[in-house]
Structure formats: structure tokens, C-alpha cells
Amino acid sequence: MIEKDTYKTIETSTEPVLFKDKNSKFHGFAFPVLNEDEVKHYLEKLKKEHHSARHWCYAYQLGTETLIYRANDDGEPNNTAGMPIYGQIQSFDVTNILIVVVRYFGGIKLGVGGLINAYKTTAQMVLEQSQIIEKTINIDYLISFEYKNMNTVMRIIKEKNLNITNQKLELSCQIIISVRKNETESVFTTFNQLYEINIRKL
């Protein structure tokens, strides 16, 4: 059985969406993120832009094989905001994503059911209009070799259509390649069999 080596995410930030219920306004945002620093950056940015809002509730998921997620109600009743948003991230099967719903309170309480529905719907709307793309899970390898073996290495890289992410080509050369997870074994074996060429996983 071939292991799954792709994941879904969004390429760029999505245009904000607006959901209204009983005078409360819910603005939904989606951002592609790779780590918690980026999450923090977008949250701070939104809090500045929407400083008069009442709540900035969010959920994010990071990672491709080991997933890290967090859901935050930001002052709304427990599990009425963050988890409904996170539920939509799961439902659309996306990762490396942050969804924030900014709420402007309209003076009328929505109750638990109303809140869950509002946050869930806003997250769903923002995901529906996001451009969801599929990416491959890649593993990086470092290939080290002497300059005289350059042609051999380059020929294999070309034949196997490998992606070079970094290279240092001097007397002793180093190339970093990014290999799709399901192809790592054959790529590693090919280079590993060669005399005077070293390959190791980063």
C-alpha cells in the first residue's frame, strides 16, 4: 500500500467573509501558516486592524504527518467558537492554516447554539472561498561529492526530476534536494550505490 504523501492547504490569505446574526458581525479570515510565530503575527495584525471588536476567536492546524492544533474561544463560552472553527478545518481536511473569526457584538446575545452556528458558518464560508491546493510531503537530502562527479549527480537529478532547494558548487560540492516522500527510497538507493557520493537525510 502506498502511504499518503500529499496534504491540502491554502496558498494565500483569503479575502475576508462576513456573516451576520442579530446585529453581531462575524468577519472570517484564513491564512497559510507554517509555525506558531506566523500564527501570532496574523493575530496581532488582526487585533490592530479590528481593535474595536469584542472577540478574536481562532483555530489553527500545523504539520503534515504529526499534527499540532489549537482552538481558542477568546472569551466566548467554552467550545462555542474555537472548536466549531477547528471542526471546519478538519472537515475540509486542510493543514498549515489559521482561521480567525473576529466578532463585533451587536447587543443581542446569541446563546450557545447561535454562537456555535455563527463561528462554524463563518469558518465554512471562508474555507469555501479559499483556494485549496494539494502539496506533496517532501523530505530533504544532502548530497556531498567532489566536483569531478558533478555530471553523474546532475544526470540523476534530471532523470528523476528532483527539486534542488540549495547548492554549493565548489571543489567539494553540496546539493540539497527535496524528494517526494513516496520516492525517497529509490532516490536514496540510487545515490547511495555510487562511489564517492554521499547522501544523507536532513
Verbal overview:
Belongs to the IMPACT family. One of its GO terms (biological process) is regulation of translational initiation. Pfam families: Impact_N. This is Impact N-terminal domain-containing protein. By secondary structure, the protein is an alpha+beta fold. It has five helices and eleven strands. The protein folds into two domains: 6-135, Impact, N-terminal domain (Ribosomal Protein S5, domain 2, 2-Layer Sandwich), CATH 3.30.230.30; 137-201, 2-Layer Sandwich (Alpha-Beta Plaits). Helices cover 30% and strands 37% of the residues. A five-stranded antiparallel β-sheet has the order 2-3-6-4-5, with helices on both faces. Strands 9-10-8-11 form a four-stranded antiparallel β-sheet, with helices on one face. A two-stranded antiparallel ribbon has the order 1-7. A hairpin with a 3-residue loop joins strand 9 (163-168) and strand 10 (172-180).
Write the layout of secondary structure elements.
Elements (H helix, E strand, L loop, with lengths): L5 E5 L6 E5 L2 E9 L3 H14 L5 E8 L5 E5 L9 H10 L5 E8 L6 H18 L3 E5 L1 E9 L3 H10 L3 E6 L3 E9 L3 H9 L4 E5 L1
Antiparallel strand pairs: 1-7, 2-3, 3-6, 4-5, 4-6, 8-10, 8-11, 9-10
Helix pairs in contact: 2-3
Family: Belongs to the IMPACT family.
GO biological process, one term: regulation of translational initiation
Organism: Pseudalgibacter alginicilyticus
